[in-house]
Design a protein that fits this description.
Chain A: InterPro entries: Leu-rich_rpt, Leu-rich_rpt_typical-subtyp, LRR_dom_sf, LRR_domain-containing. The complex is a heterodimer of chains A (about 325) and B (about 140). Chain A has about 325 residues and is α/β, with parallel strands linked by helices. Helix content of chain A is about 15%, strand content about 15%. Chain B is mainly beta and about 140 residues long. A 7-stranded mixed β-sheet of chain B has the order 7-4-9-2-1-12-13, with no helix packed on it. In chain B, strands 3-10-11 form a 3-stranded antiparallel β-sheet, with no helix packed on it. A 3-stranded antiparallel β-sheet of chain B has the order 6-5-8, with no helix packed on it. In chain B, a hairpin with a 6-residue loop joins strand 1 and strand 2. The chains are: A alpha/beta (about 325), B mainly beta (about 140).
């Protein structure tokens, strides 16, 4: 970027430097106090110096709303980018990302996140901590599973997952009440019933976390290291209506096919906190009454009916 | 949040002329053309067209891909039900695409197909805008 940019154009609001072969964007950006849209797609950005130092302290951190870095060479999300707390729209489509940093949750104003066309293999549950996220694109990646916590994205209206490596979805996906669009094609979704009751015994951290949550042990951020506070916030509720338990990473997994009015059979994975817990959907459960079984079936089919509009769009 | 269909001209009931706007990554389902002629011209960007065979009557397997191609700016394509079914997608993650479509006779319902099973489902197609005015559903 030319030095003196901010002196010539101090009131600059939109800067489009797409397709210019740019490899670095430096300090010239830091003194543009009105910049709300920066488009830098199809360049050679991705190495060190792609974004300027001191971005977190610059006016840009609060003023920038839209950032498009698609079609560049980013192999990881640059940490400096996560300081842009005013960002509403971020595109890193068509780069070389292998993952999403958990600190993505710092972008609390994010509404639109485009990460299609990368090499992403997994989604951090922290992505679910974006309360305003409405449009999430993860298509054309190498994602093998969706964390159940993603169902906490209550603002989500559109989720693009096509062309990945998903074999099933978490049952919790049915909880996304505002979801209007969901694309799933080009995934090796299992079409036959798979009885998979693998269970890794919980770690000590998991057992402690479960106790803290189920016994409502009070804690404040000052009591625990930040990493543990975050860990505790990622607890998921056991879907068994008779169990008030929670789980973190250790759970029993069972695949249940939810029928969308005889047209699609979506394999949904649901997680139980322990093998002793009976699944709300399991026909082999001894302890649950037929009443609670049919309640859970109804809940799933109501959600499935709503989702039907989504899948067929 | 998905591609939009914008009606431009209804040819006194003889045809529908519309402009489709595709964001990055947007694609259509596999669909038929309800016994009509369908012409498509790329006005901006690129669109990938994948042709499929009609599924067997009691189809219960993966649908058969016939061919695929990427249509560039100003290229035209044509399809009708005797040729087969297709899926159209903007596979770019950086550029939107715009296409011009001519359907004759006009139709507002078609069948969409599940690639994994060949099952079809009738859908009603809607317009995002007509003659420049946003269509409220």
């Amino acid at each position: 970027l030319p030095a003196g940019l901010s002196q010539w154009f101090p009131a600059l609001e939109v800067l489009d430097v797409s397709g210019t072969g740019l490899a670095e964007m430096g300090a010239e950006l830091l003194s543009l106090p009105c910049l709300h849209t920066l488009l830098a797609k199809n360049n050679r950005l991705g190495g060190p110096g792609s974004l300027p130092q001191g971005l977190g302290q610059a006016p840009l951190a609060r003023s920038l709303r839209v950032l498009n870095l698609s079609g560049n060479r980013f192999a990881e999300v640059p940490p400096a980018l996560l300081r842009l707390h005013g960002l509403r729209s971020l595109s890193l489509g068509g780069n070389r990302l292998h993952g999403i940093p958990p600190d993505i949750q710092e972008l609390q104003s994010l509404e639109f996140l485009y990460l299609g066309g990368n090499f992403i293999t997994a989604i951090p549950p922290e992505l679910a901590k974006l309360p305003s996220l409405r449009y999430l694109v993860l298509c054309d990646n190498k994602i093998q599973s969706i964390p159940p916590q993603l169902a906490q994205l209550h603002s989500l209206r559109s989720l693009s997952l096509h062309n990945n490596l998903l074999t099933y979805l978490p049952r919790e996906i049915l909880n996304l009440v505002h979801l209007e669009e969901l694309s799933l094609r080009g995934n090796p979704l299992v079409v036959r019933f798979v009885r998979d009751l693998t269970y890794n015994p919980p770690s000590l951290q998991e057992l402690a976390g479960r106790t803290v949550k189920t016994r409502n042990v009070p804690y404040a951020p000052s009591d625990l290291p930040e990493s543990l506070v975050r860990y505790l916030s990622l607890a998921s509720n056991c879907p068994n209506p008779k169990c008030g338990g929670v789980y973190f990473d250790s759970c029993v997994r069972q695949i249940k096919f939810v029928d969308f009015c005889g047209k699609y059979r979506l394999p949904l994975m649901h997680y139980l906190c322990s093998p002793e817990c009976s699944s709300p959907f399991s026909s082999a459960s001894q302890s649950s009454t037929s009443q609670s079984e049919s309640d859970s079936e109804d809940e799933a089919s109501v959600a499935a009916h709503r989702m039907q509009k989504v899948l067929l769009g | 949040f998905r591609y939009t269909r914008n009606l431009v001209d209804n040819g006194n009931g003889k045809f529908n002329l519309m402009i489709l706007c595709w964001g990055e990554g947007h694609g259509s389902s596999i669909h038929d053309h309800t016994d009509s002629h369908c012409f498509m011209k790329i006005l901006q960007g690129n669109l990938k067209e994948t042709l499929f065979e009609w599924p067997e009557k009691k189809g219960n397997g993966e649908m058969t891909k016939k061919s695929e191609r990427v249509l560039r700016e100003n290229q035209c394509a044509y399809i009708n039900d005797s040729i087969g079914l297709h899926r159209v997608e903007n596979i770019s993650h950086t550029e939107p695409a715009v296409s011009l479509h001519l359907y004759s006779p006009p139709f507002d319902t078609c069948n969409t197909f599940d690639q994994r099973t060949g099952h079809k489902h009738k859908v009603t197609m809607t317009f995002y805008s007509q003659y420049g005015e946003r269509t409220v559903c």
